[in-house]
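Support request, please re-run this one:
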Amino acid sequence: MSASPSIDPHQPYFFFDFNSPFSYLLLEQHDKWPNMPFEVLPIDYLKLLKHWGQPIPGNIPSKRVFLYRYALFRSEQLGIPFKMPPSHPFDSSKALRLAVAAGGEIGCIREIFRFIWKEGRDPSSEQGFDDLCRHVGLPDGAKMIESEDVKATLRANVERAIELGVFGVPTFVVNEQLFWGEDTLPMVLYVARSPNWLEGKEVQRISNLPRTVSEM
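Re-run finished. Output below.
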């Protein structure tokens, strides 16, 4: 990898991949997010898994079934329309580059998510991607995503995520602290209101627990 981009410790981030139904559900709750200028960054989460040596969740059959059921359950709990795409995981690279090409505009990102997870469409096929480009008002999207700048930006997003320690999606980063998963939004809101909580004695103790077993 090339040198990672510089990290602003005061910049809050939100990292996502369009393969993640939980990223979709969290973005649909954007009106509940803390009032912070989050930089919303698309990343290829498979590259994160490879970097950290983690297995792909869908490769464990029982975990795959649980995750799909839990995503549906959460969508019903939250009242958010939800329809699985025809296959999963899918190749999200073109959709990710489209988000970058659109300047990371949150309205465009939300519509890409809705195309996939509200309408249940496949963004990876040639026809599906053409339909997606029309859906978000970028008919030249197929050309836009071939820009070397777009590809370099997506790679830089992954490098930034790794430098921050991000290991999955969706992940909020606030003051260089990680909050992973759709169901951590209440924790993000709590820490935004009570930032000193992270400096508390018990939080610090459990954050630095020794390991008695190096490998399982």
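The chain is about 45% helix and 5% strand. The domain at 13-207 is CATH 3.40.30.10 (Glutaredoxin).
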